[in-house]
Each structure stands twice: as structure tokens, then as C-alpha cells.
Specification:
By secondary structure, the chain is α+β, with helices and mostly antiparallel strands. It is 27% helix and 12% strand. The mean pLDDT is 79.
């Protein structure tokens, strides 16, 4: 359901960061913390439970995915993210 999606960010324009993964380090650390579980209060049951959360989907156009996967470009040693051309 769309109400459960969280947009991490939108990066556009001519002045994009050269190394996107450096901006994602705090998000990656938070994902590791959430994967191990966070104590959360359930107001309905009035009890604590262990909440686990995972990043299961990252979307973007070809250039955004290329930057997200830290690929060097179409002339790189392995330019495709799906196969070993």
C-alpha cells in the first residue's frame, strides 16, 4: 500500500553528488539497526514488542540506479547490473 512507502530522497538537477553512496551511509546504518530489531510500544496492547524493518525496494531511472549501485558507467569493466557482459 502506498501509505507505507517512505521516499528517502530525490536528487536531481545538474549538480548531482559524485558519490551517492556516501550520502546513504546514515540510512544504511539505520537499516542495520532496524533489521536487528527495535523495542517499540504497542498502544493497543499496552506492551513492548520487537519491530524489524527492512529496505526491500529501491527505484530510479537508469542513471539513478547506476549511482545507487556505485557503478562506474557504461564503459566500465562490468557495465550491466543484471549480467556479466
Amino acid at each position: 500500500r502506498l501509505e507505507h512507502l517512505i521516499c528517502l530522497g530525490v536528487i536531481g538537477g545538474p549538480k548531482q553528488p559524485k558519490r551517492l553512496h556516501t550520502f546513504l551511509i546514515p540510512f544504511e546504518e539505520e537499516c542495520v539497526h532496524l533489521a536487528h530489531g527495535v523495542s517499540t510500544y504497542d498502544a493497543l496492547d499496552r506492551s513492548l514488542f520487537l519491530l524489524h524493518a527492512f529496505c526491500i525496494l529501491c527505484l530510479g531511472d537508469i542513471i539513478a540506479i547506476m549511482k545507487l549501485l556505485n557503478m562506474r558507467g557504461v564503459n566500465a569493466l562490468v557495465p550491466c547490473r543484471s549480467c556479466r557482459i
